[in-house]
Amino acid sequence: MPPTRIVSLVPSLTELIAYLGAGDSLVGRTRYCTEPASIAQRVPAAGGTKDPDIAAIAALKPDLVIANKEENRREDVEALRARGIEVLVTEIDSVREAIDGIRQMGELLERREPAAQLEEEIEAALLTAQLAQAATRVYVGVWHNPMLGLGAATYGQSLIDECGGVNVLGHRERYPELAHGELAALSPDFILLPDEPFPFDDGHARYYGQFAPARVIDGKLLWWYGPRMPAAIGALRAIFREAQNG
């Protein structure tokens, strides 16, 4: 039997559960689980991704809590398990792991058909993106002051690779800190400024524009795996193609 009382601590997986048709099983979420709006309106929030309300989650009597190795803290997972609550900890650091995760979620929720359909759509989008690879050297901002960029072994890095980009920090740790002078030395062709987790805006784009053409984008394109992936692949591929064409 699939779980019937789920608390999701991962925004993109909250959206995926609803997309697969199992939204009725969600009884709790984080305050950052804002999509889809129908779930955010109905399902109570129990803290955030880094500061979940353990007591409130326990009071919801979940038969499963879904967490993520990067987005959630080990101590919170252990605190939940200490209360006898089952916790599934996911780890998604690449596009292929995201596809595997969709398939596994379909199995877990007994929603195999919509999961398989989403997988097909992602694979089709990837095939289109790979037809004309463009080696666009891209810097992706993660935070400003301190300046943190997107590095290796991350889902965002993998997505950029799949869409024809070359991450100028692909040889560094997951989220390296840079001195502002280092960015110029990296010589990116293009700079992406996702509006989450740091709220980059047009003012930041003007600042980063001194190093390379810069654009603020919807952060969900880079960070949210699941039903957004086909559109994200198409959007990033178009951005890189435009950057290459000048």
Description:
The chain is built from 11 helices and 10 strands. It is α/β, with parallel strands linked by helices. The strands form 2 sheets. Strands 5, 6, 7, 8, 9 and 10 form a 6-stranded mixed beta sheet that branches. Helix 5 (95-109) packs antiparallel against helix 6 (112-130) and helix 6 runs parallel beside helix 11 (229-245). It is globular and about 55 Å long. The model has no long low-confidence stretch (mean pLDDT 95).
Short description:
The protein contains eleven helices and ten strands.
Index terms:
246 residues, alpha/beta, 6-stranded mixed beta sheet, 4-stranded parallel beta sheet, 10 strands, globular
Q: Helices, strands, pairings?
A:
Blueprint: E1 6-8, H1 11-19, E2 26-29, H2 37-42, H3 54-59, E3 64-68, H4 74-82, E4 87-90, H5 95-109, H6 112-130, E5 136-143, E6 147-149, H7 155-162, E7 165-167, E8 177-178, H8 180-186, E9 190-194, H9 202-208, E10 214-217, H10 220-223, H11 229-245
Parallel strand pairs: 1-2, 1-3, 3-4, 5-7, 5-9, 9-10
Antiparallel strand pairs: 5-6, 6-8
Helix pairs in contact: 5-6, 6-11
